[in-house]
Design a protein that fits this description.
This protein is of the alpha+beta class. Helices cover 26% and strands 42% of the residues. The protein starts with a helix and ends in a 30-residue tail after the last strand.
Length: 178
């Protein structure tokens, strides 16, 4: 009975660790944190994103260049459904929504809202600070796309009184290492 209880507790700990990587993936893209983004994948992870197929070590520069080209970006992934194959291997699936915008010729920001799903394979490997879960393979599938118009600019606007941040590099003063 104790072995089963210990196994259940370890799976909960591992699920939380995988969920943390998924949240870090979104956050590091939005704040343009290349180092944090790299920590989500094993360098030899196999990546399939329509616009890129190859190893994660090569994907990082491509995805960060894409994100830097946007005036704003916002990623959100659902809680993953996770199935463990062993103590060091798992599969997951989660849904994602991405909103991004580019500066238009007229000075406005226009872009798209995109919904899709992430099919991930995970490995727990020894790393600098001990065993760590990271993505070992990822396939991204786009399910739908819708235009985003009339996005707020970066200047104060009485019709849109909430602050908007212009995040154009990883050194934004509101960015915190978590």
């Amino acid at each position: 009975m104790s072995d089963t209880k210990d196994q259940v507790i370890q799976e909960l700990i591992d699920k939380q660790a995988i969920g943390d990587v998924i949240q870090r993936y979104c956050r590091t893209l939005d704040w343009l944190d290349a180092e944090g983004q790299a920590s989500c994948y094993w360098p030899d992870a196999e990546i399939e994103y329509g616009f890129f197929t190859g190893a994660a070590k090569d994907f990082l520069s491509v995805v960060m260049e894409t994100e830097r080209s946007l005036a704003r970006r916002w990623h959100m992934l659902s809680s993953p459904l996770i199935r463990f194959h062993s103590n060091t291997a798992a599969s997951s699936e989660c849904y994602g929504i991405f909103g991004g915008g580019r500066l238009q010729e007229d000075g406005t920001i226009g872009g798209d809202l995109i919904g899709g799903r992430y099919l991930d394979e995970w490995e727990k490997r020894d790393h600098d600070k001990g065993p760590e879960w990271r993505i070992s393979a990822r396939t991204y599938i786009v399910d739908w796309k819708s235009p985003l118009r009339d996005q707020p600019g970066f200047e104060p606007d009485p019709d849109f009184p909430l602050p908007t941040f212009k995040i154009d590099g990883p050194d934004h003063p509101k960015y915190r290492k978590l």
